[in-house]
Amino acid sequence: MSAQAPSAVILIRAQRFLPNPATAADNAFQQDVPPGQSDAATSTAALAEMDAVAEALRGAGVRVHVFEDHDHTRPDSVFPNNWLSTHAGGTIAVYPMYASNRRHERRADVLELLKSEYRVQTIVDYSGLEPDGIFLEGTGAMVLDHVSRVAYTAISHRADTHVLERFCTDFGYEPMAFDAVDSAGVPVYHTNVIACIGTDVALIALGMIPDEQRREQVRERLSVNGRTVVELSEEQIREFAGNAVELCGRTPEGRRRYVMAMSARARRSLRPDQVAAIEESCEIVAVDIPTIELAGGSVRCMIAGVHLDRRPAHVPTELTEAVRAINEDHPVTADGRYVDTLAP
User: Fold this and answer.
1) Which of 94, 251, 278, 286 could form a disulfide bond with 264, CB atoms 3.0-4.6 angstroms apart?
2) Distance CA 17, CA 39 (A)
3) Contact (Cβ atoms closer than 8 angstroms) between residue 108 and residue 329
4) Model's pTM, two decimal places?
């Protein structure tokens, strides 16, 4: 498994989906449902898009855990990356959420699945900071470089620098916070709409960082280990070109391959040279999700990556007894190899 690109993901299959009115004030990417389109039709269309994303990722050889959500009071539950992140070494983080109607997106069954199928040592829960008005919305607020251990963060009321420092201390990351705004001076609400970090390539709208010195520091930090930096324009950001994520899949033959998952809209916004730069290290997997993008997030927001080691498959008792019998007949060396007593 790659340190940067997880080979398994969590998706939430929400039976009801609508752009969240509680997040519209500060999410400049959010749009209204087309006039005359019913809530039922919107939810049905979004459900089909969620299934298409799951199918595309499975087709790329990525392990996909899908959780159904029948709660009609969670309009943004399709975006689990805001409340959950997982980390190598067996640690999970749970985050404080800005919108009060998003806080019950946190689900015990998701955590239980992770504990049962992966090696989980610790769950660090920051959600108790919500009553104090302190928020850090997961890998929406932070774009994490798991290789160089840097947490890139556009400062906003959804990304408090104090809890960012606390997260970085707890998880061993270097905080790199910066202001990011659009051409109208509106702050970027989530870092992951302007930046995506892969193993060998990064996509980022450096021009939306107004402080020139900080902009160059970010550029240098991203490229210090030879990573290619693909600069995105503000226009491409509005097409969700920055809201992508690198994953580690498998070919039908079992060979590892890296894929860059994004929306079809994002893919169409990229220039040929940008596509070529990405495809030097990743295969682009693009899925059309226009309904979900009405809520102001795209494919990256839909994916909570699993950076945990899998537990070994459960071995039935009868098989365990058979192995014990074999061990009794065939002694085992100190390094665990069977000794064939018939060998010369």
Assistant:
1) 286
2) 8
3) no
4) 0.89
